[in-house]
Amino acid sequence: MFKRAALTVALGSAFVGLSGQTALATLVTLNDRNTEVKSDFNSVGDFFDFVVDGTDHLDREWFWIRVNDDDRETKVTALDGKDFIHYDGNFDPGEDHIFARWFDPMDRFEITVEEVLTGGTVGSAVSNFSQTVRVTNLSDAPLRLNLFQLANFDLLGTPGGDTVEVISDNVIMQTELNSFMRETFTNHSPTSTQVAEADTLYNALTDAGVTNLDGSTGPFAGSDVEYAVQWTTTIPVGGAFFVNKDFFISAPDSIVPEPASAVMLGLAGLALLGVRRRQA
Length: 280
Description:
Blueprint: H1 2-19, E1 27-32, E2 35-40, E3 47-52, E4 55-56, E5 58-67, E6 74-75, E7 80-87, E8 97-103, E9 109-119, E10 126-137, E11 143-153, E12 163-168, E13 171-176, E14 179-185, E15 192-197, H2 200-206, E16 220-221, E17 225-235, E18 240-250, H3 259-279
Antiparallel strand pairs: 1-2, 2-3, 3-4, 5-6, 5-11, 7-8, 8-9, 9-10, 10-18, 11-17, 12-13, 12-16, 13-14, 14-18, 15-17
């Protein structure tokens, strides 16, 4: 308990230094240039909107944890001691950072999630969203950790037409037409992965049993696809395990030409057709 109290005081001071106050609402919206993202920090909440130039490419994404001899996974937002802030980290209009923290009810660990939004130029249909997840061992024994991330992206705003594939140890791609979402893990690659039809993995992580991913990598296409990753490790006494990763979206198929641009393209096409006819 002393460790937890000390950490609470230290991090609480950091929170005040960053934002002046701790956020009270559970629904947080970040904005940066062409992108808006939304996260819900209630007990069953998650990261659920990733809107780039007006198109929402995400259904949901979030984390589950299982330690030692737990008989099931726990969604991180359902843990005790929720505390979080959101703030502007780059002086552009809009808040683009979130820092959140939860404690295990049995005082075995603390978990923090930091999220940073870096939008693209308006009209570019590109954007980046990074997450850093850190689990700190607060107990007096090594902590056996299984950390999970579930992601269900709906590229171009629809669940159908997507294909997901684990490209390498540290890259997962989801594609539709000429658009894609790429998740890159920059320090710890997942121990295991799984690709499946939507809700298969969500149901496995939220049921009353232990889940371990099957190692499947795809490519997998379905009416609605999702994927999950799992990190399995042991955290020594006083130690921490953290994951850095980011989502990059490039969705040119979501951009509809403005009426004036469409007219110009049409006129150019007619002019080219006239030239070809005269040459014939």
